[in-house]
Specification:
By secondary structure, the protein is α/β, with parallel strands linked by helices. Helices cover 36% and strands 15% of the residues.
């Protein structure tokens, strides 16, 4: 393992498999981990709104016996006075053993990691990367499907700005016989650099389509995403594209019986609430898996056996 986790590509396949195995052991034996981080402190530095990621990190640390400090909004800290990311990180290093940082600017966690000696975890930086969400997705797929290879994964919605999709493509490219179906309108297609540097460079099989219905019968996993208002510069474009794909029960008519439906959340209206009672809906179990994989990651980065 590296000192920090800024990008999912820092982790080898062996690293990922070890974290998934550790998370599985935590799920099976929670009492054995209840005091592993006694006396340790996690600092959550969230410059951008978050519900699941921040609470997941915090609950992970609490369940390991540790404590949490930090802020959930830049306006609640000296950032509002103009303090730099580097200075904030060096200050927090005096009080904490590990940092989880979310920031709207790409590369901010990388800057922080270069200034401190304690581990820094990227909890999302702009539209760039979200490695712990990717680990959550991998653990979810592994637990739901029993494997991370030999499957067809459909990614649907905002593939242009969706950092969770970009990271998932990078991570799943490590596993054998994984094929992607990329479902989006023309305006939200996967960025060219992801297509060339991840898919084509890695010789990963993929196809692009604008039809969710046509793709559905071949999918083992469907990864839905919302169209992100905060990533658009033009409100009119957002309003035009936000309802392009809405998953409803009728669209599952030709889906596989063992399809797994994932979503990084928050959901707006791209998945009908009627889907929630379908056993193929995994997205709230996915939230819970996020806590376990972050517990495993904290232990690994802190070097706790």
């Amino acid at each position: 393992m590296t000192k920090d986790l800024i990008d999912i590509l820092q982790l080898s396949r062996d690293d990922i498999d070890a974290l998934i195995a550790k998370a599985g052991d935590i799920i099976d034996h929670p009492d054995a981990y209840a005091h592993k981080c006694d006396g340790k402190k996690l600092a959550t530095l969230f410059y951008e709104p978050s519900t699941r990621t921040r609470l997941s990190f915090e609950s992970a640390m609490y369940e390991l016996g540790g404590n949490v400090i930090g802020f959930s909004s830049a306006t609640d800290s000296s950032v509002s006075k103009g303090e730099s990311v580097a200075d904030t990180a060096r200050t927090v290093e005096c009080f904490a053993d590990i940092i989880a940082m979310r920031h709207p600017k790409e590369g901010a966690p990388y800057v922080a990691a270069g200034k401190v000696d304690i581990p820094v975890v990227n909890a999302g930086d702009g539209g760039h990367n979200h490695p712990t969400q990717t680990l959550t997705d991998l653990l979810t797929i592994s637990r739901e499907k029993g494997r991370l290879s030999d499957m067809v994964i459909g990614c649907c919605g905002d593939l242009k700005f969706g950092r969770t999709v970009h990271s998932l493509l990078e991570a799943m490219s490590r596993y054998e016989n994984v094929r992607f179906v990329l479902i989006s309108p023309e305006e939200l297609k996967i960025p060219e650099h992801v297509r060339t540097e991840v898919l084509e460079k890695g010789n990963i099989a993929f196809e692009e389509t604008d039809s969710l219905e046509n793709a559905m019968p071949k999918l083992d996993v469907l990864y839905m995403t919302r169209v992100q208002r905060e990533r658009f510069f033009n409100e009119a474009d957002y309003l035009r594209l936000k309802d392009t794909y809405i998953l409803t029960p009728d669209k599952l008519e030709h889906a596989k019986e063992d399809l797994s439906i994932l979503h990084p959340l928050p959901r707006v209206n791209e998945i009908s609430v009627e889907i929630d009672k379908d056993p193929r809906a995994c997205y709230f179990r996915q939230v819970l898996y996020g806590k376990y994989i972050r517990m495993a990651l904290i232990l690994s980065l802190l070097g706790v056996d």
